[in-house]
Every structure is written in C-alpha cells, then in structure tokens.
C-alpha cells in the first residue's frame, strides 16, 4: 500500500526540496514558468503574466491540504534561489504506480540539479512511500530529460506517437521511461 506522507522537505547535497508558498509565485514566474525555453518541453505554455503563476501556485498550495499531494519546489542551498519544481502525479491506488514531472529554470540547466532532484524524490517514493513503479515521459526533441531519467536508473519502455499536444498546438512523440521499486531496491 502507498504510504502517503504529503510533501515533506527533502535535503540533498546542493538542494532543498520543499513545499511551495504563495510568496514564491514571482520566482516561479521569473525563473521558469515565463520562459518558453522551459515550457516548450512541457504541456502547458509559458505564463504571460505573474497573475497566471499566482493562480497556479494557489492551486499547488491548496493541494498540500491532502497527504496524497507531492509537489516540491527546488531551492538551491547556497543562494536560497528557487530554481524549479518536481512532482509525483497520477498516483494510482490500484497499481500503486505514479508519474514524475520536473522543470528547472534555464540558467540552471546542465549542472546536475535535475538528476539530483529526481534521484532524491525517487528514493523518497520507493523507500518512504512504498510506490511500486515510477514513470516519466519526455518529448523526443528533449533528449536532456531522457538523459536525466537514465542517469537515475529508469529504462526506456517505448515511444508513443503524438502522446501530447502542447500549448503551441504541436503534437509530440514521447519516449516513456519507468523504474520499478524492486529494481531500485536491488
Ligand atoms: C530536463 C531538465 C530538468 C534537465 O535538468 P538538468 O539539471 O539540466 O539535468 P542534469 O544537468 O542533471 O543532466 C542533463 C544531462 O543531459 C545532457 N544533455 C543536455 N543537453 C542534451 C542534448 N541536447 N542531448 C543529449 N543530452 C543532453 C547533459 O549533458 C547532462 O548529461 P551528463 O550529466 O551526462 O553530461 C531541464 O533541462 C529542464 O527543466 N528542461 C525543461 C523542462 C523539461 O524538459 N522537463 C522535463 C519534461 S519530461
């Protein structure tokens, strides 16, 4: 059975994964959600105004009322900057499987932060929440995300054509990846 623990703070070498607060909305907007270089790889488009981000962060903060809600802001220990977010979604009580999604601000790409954050939540998901399987998918034109998945031990299970349609009305083929709790624990 999944043990739902909400969104506790998780510390890694360089990062603090923590709940978002309403006061983070400006940083979320400035650092990644207003930037098409980031959102082009996501389903929802870039925010044009901080008010859209305030609405989004309000929904996230409301989610924390439920112990089943797992949505972390990614903060840099050194500077205290909020550089991205990572979450579990589609938590399924029948299969005990879930999906993971993540995004980082462009100026922090390629410094290992995505891998560090994903490794930390996957460890939390398997060791503390007893999740059975964690899956993720990335657009084929976003190979860096697949690299992050492979670096933490996920394996590619296939490719799904036109799996998503993004905010620019483009269909994207996606690579789907997964890791089983049993594989992780070995
Ligand atoms: C995907 C994302 C989170 C990666 O975060 P990150 O902190 O840059 O990742 P890391 O630095 O840990 O690792 C990135 C790896 O991809 C590699 N990489 C970067 N660009 C690449 C490219 N065009 N092709 C192949 N590999 C690439 C890097 O070299 C690095 O591998 P290495 O450590 O072996 O050198 C970040 O790019 C991002 O937020 N993108 C926009 C949102 C997004 O794509 N979210 C995921 C949706 S599935």
UniProtKB/TrEMBL annotation:
<dbReference type="Pfam" id="PF13302">
    <property type="entry name" value="Acetyltransf_3"/>
</dbReference>
<dbReference type="InterPro" id="IPR016181">
    <property type="entry name" value="Acyl_CoA_acyltransferase"/>
</dbReference>
<dbReference type="InterPro" id="IPR000182">
    <property type="entry name" value="GNAT_dom"/>
</dbReference>
<protein>
    <submittedName>
        <fullName>GNAT family N-acetyltransferase</fullName>
    </submittedName>
</protein>
<feature type="domain" description="N-acetyltransferase">
    <location>
        <begin position="15"/>
        <end position="183"/>
    </location>
</feature>
<dbReference type="InterPro" id="IPR051531">
    <property type="entry name" value="N-acetyltransferase"/>
</dbReference>
<keyword id="KW-0808">Transferase</keyword>
<dbReference type="GO" id="GO:0016747">
    <property type="term" value="F:acyltransferase activity, transferring groups other than amino-acyl groups"/>
</dbReference>
